[in-house]
């Protein structure tokens, strides 16, 4: 959305030595790229006027925030914002804060304890959003553009603006209801827009990241690189303020008690492509309340969060016939604390078809660069009979690696990629269509992209 151009510029400045590490002082920042570290380097505050040449100043609060004191922006609301003044912890274009322990792989045991909080003040005028911006990369990157997932969490917005892409669902997380938006601009942008605006938020990073993983937009193997909180103004913006910000293990939250372990799931109604799970309810004594359950599915050595439920049942679809799966359930409370995983149930799907006729898959290369590409859309077109699942396979050229996929799940074996539908998009009527996309890296200078897509 906003970062591609500024990241390129900052990368050049860093490489040439013209952009120095943030200074300790500077209580008021008016420079376009001005930034300063606070609390002995624990956080960095940046002015970050990346999308406009109009004036903007921020008054830095050394105790952990800033106020936009001047903002002369007036940009069309159907395009990118003027800036992203923000406070952050972690690594942002070769400037890493002290003590954040980032980058950190999302599969690390400490990742589940990472917590952040923010308190904000909003003016009644202008057009803006108030948003966290949380970055993930397939590698432990400390500089350059992240190419995994950008999680945006909109606490509030004013004016006719919307996130990148389109709305794909709603979800209850961190004590609130959120619209879920998805788009891809060379990396996955997953935005959570609160349906009832709030001026403060306190949550674990995994609360939203686990949801993005369950939708196929992010991966547990990726690395968290930075956690940022601030504002995107299109028009005006003076008076926007971050009053306080925290990031770390435990953060500023009061509920650190995980829910109890869910009961062992049972399976019923198993077909060649689906099964229904039920389990005993968890209880939560931490005060934030039980928010729902995450369903874990193991196939071979691959463990996936395949969905979530606010009840004690879940139907998993798009399975392969005559295949054995293991299921476990984790409870999640309103503060993002996760329970231990339940005991497992083993399910073997029935043999036989159920696919409902032939289907085809066609792929379009959206964009390609020297060492990577984005394929979107890959359109699956059904035959004359309805189906409850679909699978697309294609050979991955030597040296290529898939770094992200959306609207589907995938596995790689022996150079062959197998893509399967998610729970929400397996059902196709006669001649119906559905699409997914993915991003991949390739050896520098290699111009190949995959071909030979087969649908079953």
Task: Tell me what you see in this structure.
There is one protein chain. It contains two helices and 32 strands. Strand 12 (166-173) and strand 13 (176-184) form a beta hairpin. The protein has three domains: 3-249, Glycoside hydrolase family 11/12, catalytic domain (Jelly Rolls), CATH 2.60.120; 266-348, Sandwich (Immunoglobulin-like), CATH 2.60.40; 359-455, Sandwich (Immunoglobulin-like). It is 5% helix and 46% strand. The two termini are 35 Å apart. The strands form six sheets. Strands 2, 3, 6, 7, 8, 10, 11, 12, 13, 14 and 16 form an eleven-stranded mixed β-sheet that branches. Keywords: Carbohydrate metabolism, Glycosidase, Hydrolase, Polysaccharide degradation, Signal.
* Helix content class: under 10%
CATH architecture grouping of the largest domain = Sandwich
First-to-last CA distance: 35 Å
**Mind telling me the C-alpha Rg?**
23 Å
Please mark out the parts with pLDDT under 50 across 5 or more consecutive residues, or reply none.
1-26
Which helices and strands, and how do they pair?
Blueprint: H1 3-16, E1 28-29, E2 35-38, E3 43-46, E4 56-61, E5 65-71, E6 86-92, E7 95-96, E8 104-105, E9 114-121, E10 127-137, E11 149-158, E12 166-173, E13 176-184, E14 188-194, E15 200-204, H2 205-214, E16 223-235, E17 241-249, E18 266-268, E19 275-278, E20 290-299, E21 302-309, E22 313-316, E23 324-333, E24 345-348, E25 359-369, E26 372-382, E27 391-395, E28 401-406, E29 409-413, E30 416-420, E31 433-441, E32 454-455
Parallel strand pairs: 11-14
Antiparallel strand pairs: 1-4, 2-3, 3-6, 4-5, 5-17, 6-7, 6-16, 8-16, 9-15, 9-17, 10-11, 10-16, 12-13, 13-14, 18-19, 19-22, 20-21, 20-23, 23-24, 25-26, 26-31, 27-30, 27-32, 28-31, 29-30
């Amino acid at each position: 959305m906003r970062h591609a151009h500024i990241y390129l510029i900052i990368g050049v400045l860093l490489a040439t030595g013209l952009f120095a590490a943030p200074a300790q002082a500077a209580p008021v920042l008016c420079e376009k790229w001005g930034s300063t570290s606070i609390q002995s380097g624990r956080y960095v505050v940046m002015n970050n006027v990346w999308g406009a040449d109009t004036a903007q100043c921020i008054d830095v609060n050394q105790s952990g925030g800033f106020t936009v004191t001047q903002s002369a922006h007036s940009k069309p609301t159907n395009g990118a914002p003027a800036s992203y003044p923000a406070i952050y912890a972690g690594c942002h274009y070769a400037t890493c804060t002290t003590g954040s322990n980032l980058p950190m792989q999302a599969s690390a045991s400490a990742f589940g304890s990472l917590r952040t909080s923010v308190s904000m003040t909003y003016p009644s005028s202008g057009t803006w959003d108030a948003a966290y911006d949380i970055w993930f990369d397939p590698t432990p990157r400390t500089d350059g553009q992240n190419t995994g997932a950008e999680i945006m969490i909109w606490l509030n917005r004013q004016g006719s603006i919307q996130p990148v892409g389109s709305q794909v669902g709603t979800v209850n997380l961190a004590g609130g209801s959120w619209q879920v938006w998805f788009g891809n601009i060379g990396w996955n942008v997953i935005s959570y827009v609160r349906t009832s605006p709030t001026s403060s938020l306190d949550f674990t990073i995994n609360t939203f990241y686990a949801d993005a993983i369950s939708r196929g937009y992010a991966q547990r193997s990726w690395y968290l690189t930075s956690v940022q909180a601030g504002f995107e103004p299109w028009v005006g913006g003076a008076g926007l303020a971050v009053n306080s910000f925290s990031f770390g293990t435990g953060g500023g939250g009061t509920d650190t008690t995980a829910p109890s372990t869910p009961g062992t799931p049972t399976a019923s109604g198993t077909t060649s492509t689906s099964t229904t799970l039920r389990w005993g309810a968890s209880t939560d004594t931490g005060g934030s309340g039980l928010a729902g359950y995450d369903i874990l599915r193991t196939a071979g050595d691959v463990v996936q969060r395949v969905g979530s439920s606010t009840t004690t049942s879940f139907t998993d679809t798009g399975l392969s016939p005559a295949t054995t799966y293991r299921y476990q359930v984790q409870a999640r409370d309103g503060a993002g604390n996760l329970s231990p995983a339940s005991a497992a149930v083993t399910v073997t799907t029935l043999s036989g078809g159920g696919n409902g006729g032939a289907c085809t898959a066609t792929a379009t290369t959206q964009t390609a660069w020297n060492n990577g590409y984005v394929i979107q859309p890959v359109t699956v077109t059904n035959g004359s009979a309805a189906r409850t699942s679909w699978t697309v396979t294609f050979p991955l050229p030597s040296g290529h690696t898939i770094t992200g996929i959306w609207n589907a799940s995938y596995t790689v074996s022996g150079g062959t990629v197998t893509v399967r539908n998610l729970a929400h998009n397996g059902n196709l009527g006669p001649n119906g269509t559905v699409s997914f996309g993915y991003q991949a890296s390739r050896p520098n200078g290699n111009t190949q992209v995959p071909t030979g897509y087969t649908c079953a």
